[in-house]
Amino acid sequence: MSSPFHKELHALITQPSPAALGPAARPGTLAQADLNRALDELFRRHGSPAKAELIRALLLLWHDHHDASHTISQSIENPDGSLVHGILHRREPDYWNAKYWFRHVGQHPCFAELAKLAAPLLAADAKLSAQLLTGGAWDASAFVDAVEVAASKPATDAPHPLLRALQQAETEAALDYFLT
């Protein structure tokens, strides 16, 4: 993305560390009011995109404001809203509910870009790559399963950093799609 608007929005998901797989807050995120002010200002200066509320829900979730993100995403009754809703419930963690929402998503258009972003990240883990990139396509339900398995292990175990990086790629792919 080359426009100043895209760069400024992407800057809002550049944190010292990717979001936790679960609901834990992390240092370096923006307070909800600060993030909302920043988004309102960006939308005012650059024009509010058609999917502004989806962008808001996605970024609120990225900054660990689950309740505010949930309020928005559950009110958007289409595959885009279901995508954010599914990501939210995976992080909650409510894995069954996350899969429910991902079934409503189907094969989301952002999954093609996510598969491209995920492939190099998964290059060193053939087993996880085969699980998540079925036939080269992103499998959101399999990602829920992988996160659920990892959640039963310490956050310092090997799969956590990779899954967190994939979660960031997921957010980037969704954000780019919402900006089209």
Features:
about 180 residues; mainly alpha
Helix content: 55-70%
Residue stretches low in confidence (pLDDT < 50, at least 5 long) are none
> Ends: how far apart?
10 Å
For the residues shown, what is the average pLDDT?
A: 94
Number of strands: 2
Widest beta sheet: strand line-up: 1-2
Overview of the molecule:
With about 180 residues, this protein is an all-alpha fold. The chain has one domain. The chain has helices at about 5-10, 30-45, 50-60, 65-75, 80-90, 95-105, 110-120, 125-130, 140-150, 160-180, and strands spanning about 135, 135-140. It has a two-stranded antiparallel sheet with strand order 1-2. The N and C termini lie close together (about 10 Å).
Summarize the structure.
This protein has 180 residues and is mainly α.
List the helices and strands and how they pair.
Layout: H1 4-11, H2 32-46, H3 52-62, H4 66-73, H5 79-91, H6 95-105, H7 110-122, H8 126-132, E1 133-134, E2 137-138, H9 140-151, H10 159-178
Antiparallel strand pairs: 1-2
Helix pairs in contact: 2-3, 3-4, 3-5, 3-10, 4-5, 5-6, 6-9, 7-10
